[in-house]
Fold:
Amino acid sequence: MIGRIISALVGREMGRRDGSGGTSGAIKGVVAMSVLRRMGPLGLVLGGGYAAKKAYDRNKARKAI
Structure:
């Protein structure tokens, strides 16, 4: 369950970075999470950390305006 949530967040961030949007980001997120899941708990931490850092940076940039 947590892996699917992290997968969605990673996919959304990857889609935003590329500017491609929804479906492409979701597919990239699923592929990325399948790779990260095979790494075990470390992979889930890395994926969650990636999504958290991107959200933090976006929030920081929004407050700077």
